[in-house]
Design brief:
By secondary structure, the chain is of the alpha+beta class. Helices cover 43% and strands 25% of the residues.
C-alpha cells in the first residue's frame, strides 16, 4: 500500500525507522549496516529528507546523527501514516498499560526492511511480561490488519529491526 506511494524502498525504510517512534536515531554507517544497503543510497535519502525538513542532523563528536523533526508541520500526519501502514496505531497505548514491564517493542523481518508482507514479526522485550495477554493482542491485531503477527519475547540478534517503542531510561 505505502510502497505504491513511496517508490524508494530506502526512503520508506528511513521513514519507518524515524517516524515509528520519535526517539529513534541513527547515523549513516549504522543505518547502512542495519538496512544492508550502500552508504551512498542511504546518504542520498538522508540528505533529501533533511533538506525537506523531515529529519534533523546533529553533530555528535565524529558522527552525524539523524532523527525525526518533531516540529515539522507534517510530522504527526506522517507518523500516523507509518503507524497505520504497520498496523500498530490501535494497539500501542493499551498494550503498554496491560502487558507488564515492557522495555522495548521491536519490529523485525520484512517490515523492518521496508517491505510490505503478509506477516509482521514483532519482539517484545522486558521483565514480568504477560505473555498470554501479548499473544491475544497479536491475534486481535492480526485480525484487524489482515496479516499474521508473529510474536517473540527476546531481543533480535543480527537481523534488521526497528524499535517501535522504548521505555524511557532503558536501552
Amino acid at each position: 500500500m505505502l510502497g505504491a506511494l513511496i517508490t524508494s524502498k530506502t526512503r520508506l525504510k528511513l521513514l519507518i525507522k524515524f517516524f515509528v517512534s520519535a526517539s529513534n536515531r541513527g547515523y549513516l554507517r549504522g543505518i547502512a549496516e542495519e538496512f544492508d544497503e550502500s552508504t551512498n543510497a542511504i546518504r542520498k535519502e538522508l540528505n533529501q529528507l533533511t533538506e525537506a525538513g523531515f529529519l534533523l542532523r546533529e553533530q555528535n563528536q565524529k558522527k552525524v546523527n539523524y532523527k525525526a523533526n518533531i516540529r515539522h508541520p507534517l510530522f504527526a500526519p506522517v507518523q500516523k501514516l507509518i503507524h497505520s501502514f504497520l498496523g500498530i496505531e490501535q494497539a500501542i497505548d493499551q498494550v503498554m498499560a496491560r502487558a507488564g514491564g515492557v522495555e522495548q517493542v521491536i519490529l523485525r523481518g520484512d517490515y523492518a526492511r521496508g517491505i510490505e508482507a503478509d506477516q509482521m514479526q514483532v519482539s517484545v522485550v522486558g521483565e514480568n511480561l504477560d505473555v498470554a495477554y501479548l499473544l491475544r493482542v497479536a491475534d486481535k491485531t492480526a485480525e484487524l490488519i489482515g496479516k499474521k503477527v508473529e510474536m517473540s519475547f527476546d531481543k533480535p540478534q543480527q537481523e534488521p529491526c526497528i524499535i517501535i517503542y522504548q521505555k524511557e531510561g532503558s536501552g
